[in-house]
């Protein structure tokens, strides 16, 4: 759980810094739209990788006898 928190909370300040700098260069509305587009794009990319992730995890789960074939 601590590794999860570190990975999530550890990168958040850098994103906040980037969006804050972008807002100071442009305006807040543009910075928020850019952040939203980044989130949607990364969500789509993750969604497209789900079948591959599922295949890899199912092999591990079968090997560990967590699930049956």
Q: Specify the overall morphology.
A: elongated
What's the order of the H and E elements?
HH
Helix content: over 70%
Number of helical elements: 2
Major sheet details:
none
Poorly predicted ranges (pLDDT <50, ≥5 residues)?
A: none
Helix and strand composition category: mainly alpha
Strand content: under 5%
pLDDT average, as an integer? 89
**How far is it from the N-terminal to the C-terminal residue, by CA?**
29 Å
Cα-based radius of gyration, to the nearest Å? 18 Å
Describe the structure.
- By secondary structure, the protein is an all-alpha fold.
- The protein contains 2 helices and no strands.
- Helix 1 runs antiparallel to helix 2 (28-63).
- The protein starts with a helix and ends in a 6-residue tail after the last helix.
- The mean pLDDT is 89.
Quick summary:
By secondary structure, the chain is mainly α. 87% of the residues lie in helices and 0% in strands.
Topology:
Blueprint: H1 2-25, H2 28-63
Key phrases:
0% strand, 69 residues
């Amino acid at each position: 759980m601590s590794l999860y928190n570190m990975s999530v909370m550890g990168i958040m300040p850098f994103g906040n810094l980037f969006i804050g700098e972008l807002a100071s260069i442009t305006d807040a509305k543009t910075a928020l739209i850019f952040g939203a587009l980044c989130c949607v794009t990364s969500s789509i990319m993750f969604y497209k990788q789900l079948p591959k992730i599922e295949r890899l995890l199912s092999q591990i789960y079968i090997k560990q006898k967590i699930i049956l074939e």
